[in-house]
Amino acid sequence: IGEDVKPFTPGKAKEIVMSLQQPAVFCNMVGDWPALHWNAKYLSAVLDGKTIQFRLGLKTVDLVPQFETRCSYVKATLEEFLAWSCGQPSCLSGPFSCYEYSKYWAYADYKYIARIFEDKPEIFQDIRWSDFGFPGRSGKESTLWIGSEGANTPCHLDSYGCNLVLQVQGRKRWHLFPPGDTSFLYPTRIPYEESSIFSKVNVANPDLKCFPKFRNATAHVVTLSPGQVLLVPRHWWHYVESIDPITISINSWIELDADHEARVEEAITRMLVCAVKSAENPSDGDLWLNPTEVEATSHEINLQYLNKAVSAYFNCQKASVSEQARPSS
């Protein structure tokens, strides 16, 4: 095959993404994407002194996951992050001064590209999900993840969609578990975040006394290298860790029809979690709320979410019924 011929047409790639029930790595699909040049130095120049929030965690491995509620947060420029990750003495002052590089990792995760680069919309076109059969999907519908060595996301599953992840700089190790392993992973809704169900197990260092059923879980471990795209199918659990000094990846969640039902479940969960918390002692603060959640919402707002989700679900059901009826009518 010639250098510029991709292994799959957009139509075939989409068919694989929408139907495959196993994780898969696509190779040689993005060789011509300008986003492959988005290394940290380039992004630092593009952001030109703009600050972004970094989550900091300890590199020491504990028996419990380092949930986002137990991390520290700093706002810094990408330039300051790069200087810190290279161990430059200039970091004795500045946002990372309290965090020794040998002891901490930093992660600018879950950054909406549309928000960070709102004044540079031309950059959205550097990401071409149209090659995977999603015309019109670009950086505008994607998120950016920038981490140092050791940066990680606790093991969780996403309630909605399937996930396409492009690795740009450095390597990341993905530990993936099938939906059938859910009970072995001890799912929890605290910390609460809409669309994320966390595991109580630190899958990198499991406490088998507390979580004996984890022995039955089957990890699919993938090391993702620059230029590769990982497909994470719907409801697959994943724990992700950066294994190089600097890692950059870009992802996009692909909506699925099954999301309508998941939205109803999520709306009910939000209502229950908020109700239980409002009945408890309010002095324990928002430690139960994942930092990505803006605030605990009122019962009235939660009912509105539920109402919208149920309406959308029934509209989708009606649409699919009339689709099936059409050929015979």
UniProtKB/TrEMBL annotation:
Residues 105-269 form the JmjC domain. It comes from the Eukaryota. Keywords: Cytoplasm. It is found in: Cytoplasm. Transmembrane segments: none annotated. Its main location: cytoplasm. Pfam families: Cupin_8. GO terms for cellular component: cytoplasm. InterPro entries: Cupin_8, HSPB1-associated_protein_1, JmjC_dom. May play a role in cellular stress response. This is HSPB1-associated protein 1. It comes from Pygoscelis adeliae. The lineage of its organism: Eukaryota, Metazoa, Chordata, Craniata, Vertebrata.
